[in-house]
Write a structure and sequence with these properties.
Layout lengths: L2 H31 L5 E4 L13 E5 L17 E5 L7 E12 L2 E7 L16 E9 L3 H6 L3 H15 L1 H4 L2 E3 L12 H12 L8 H21 L3 H28 L13 E3 L9 H30 L2 H11 L10 E3 L11
Antiparallel strand pairs: 1-2, 1-8, 2-6, 3-4, 3-6, 4-5, 7-9
Helix pairs in contact: 3-7, 5-6, 5-7, 6-7, 6-8, 7-8, 8-9
């Protein structure tokens, strides 16, 4: 089978597994957690800083809907419920009180960030479940690809990685040197920032700008640090999709105030994870432009650096050899490889 077809299958399978983890995983969790929507994404700031915008939340069933802990913040139960008199508007708020009217139990709810309680008495029948955990910012990815523009952006990046060897024919470098693990540090800053946000729930935009700047540096280093360009672009691409897009979305929210609840015409403070595209608002058009403005410099840096290395431009090739510890004695002239057939490669 042609090598390019194998590469397309490999990338496609990896992307399919990625989507399966984000969307198909919900089917497995549905059985485990006992609710129709075990994974949801926070799309408004009504629960900040307890739950951040863009957070994945994990929801489990409540055995006794009439015996929920109702206390002011921070003790009351955080629940997801269907807004009274609505069929598709889901809310995640805290239960702060319980009342009885005409012999029937109702709950009073409130967002931790809101000044006052909600303007309704919540019937237990409207409750979906309780929130048991969160994963900061990662929900932005599933929201982003629920838009046509976001999905197209990711697909275009994937297609670019498929056909990069046709656009920029490789050159073989028999002297491969050794991979310098320290060159991974800039690309690890983003995941580390996401981990830090488990604990830092407010005032974190500085960390996110640090992650973006480090990713730009990684976009320069990755093509030069790796011998195997296919491995480099896969690591870089999935870091872009899974880490930098969520961080970019959050930067847009923090700097403009445009929350994902403003991306669509559907209301609510939380949305289920599903495959459906949703009609976007003009606010999302502005958000998408700002996300592109944040991520495209890194994309351009990566492509130009890879092109410079493959074209054999001396400063880039010299830095590539320096990063891999290739001495002058090891250097042999590179040869064009229009067929893109790889020589036997060492790991990384």
């Amino acid at each position: 089978m042609d090598k390019r077809i194998i590469e397309i299958i490999k990338y496609g399978a990896t992307f399919g597994i990625l989507l399966l983890l984000f969307f198909g995983g919900g089917i497995l969790l549905k059985g485990i957690l006992g609710v129709d929507y075990p994974m949801m994404v926070v799309v408004s700031d009504s629960m900040v800083p307890t739950l951040g915008v863009g957070d994945y939340i994990f929801v489990t069933s409540i055995p006794d809907l009439y015996n929920i802990e109702a206390e002011p913040q921070p003790d009351g139960e955080i629940i997801v419920f269907l807004k009274p008199n609505s069929v598709d508007e889901y809310i995640v708020h805290r239960v702060i009180d319980k009342v009885t009217k005409n012999g029937q139990t109702f709950y009073i709810t409130k967002g931790d960030h809101n000044l006052g309680a909600d303007a309704w008495f919540l019937s237990p029948e409207n409750i979906i479940g309780r929130v048991i955990n969160r994963a900061p910012l990662l929900g932005y990815f599933s929201l982003f690809i629920k838009t046509f523009q976001g999905f197209a952006f990711v697909v275009i990046l994937m297609a670019l990685s498929f056909f990069i060897d046709y656009l920029m024919p490789k050159k073989k470098y028999p002297s491969m040197g050794k991979f310098n693990v320290f060159t991974l540090i800039p690309i690890l800053v983003g995941p580390i920032v996401l981990a830090v946000l488990w604990f830092v729930r407010d005032g974190h935009i500085g960390y996110e700008f640090l992650a973006v700047g480090s990713w730009y540096l990684a976009s320069f280093l990755m093509p030069l640090a790796f011998y195997d360009d296919d491995m480099a672009i896969m690591v870089w691409l999935y870091d872009l999709v899974l880490v930098m897009i969520p961080i970019s979305c959050d930067i847009v929210y923090l700097t403009t105030g445009i929350m994902p609840s403003m991306w669509w015409y559907v209301q609510g403070s939380v949305v289920p994870i599903n495959w459906l595209f949703m009609k976007v608002t003009p606010q999302f058009e502005q958000t998408f432009y700002l996300i592109l403005r944040t991520t495209l410099p890194g994309v351009i840096i990566y492509i130009l650096t890879l092109l410079a290395k493959r074209k054999g431009w001396k400063p880039f090739v010299s830095f590539h050899r320096l990063l891999r510890g290739i001495s002058k004695e090891d250097i042999t002239p590179p040869v064009s490889d229009p067929s893109t057939t790889d020589v036997n490669q060492q790991q990384l």
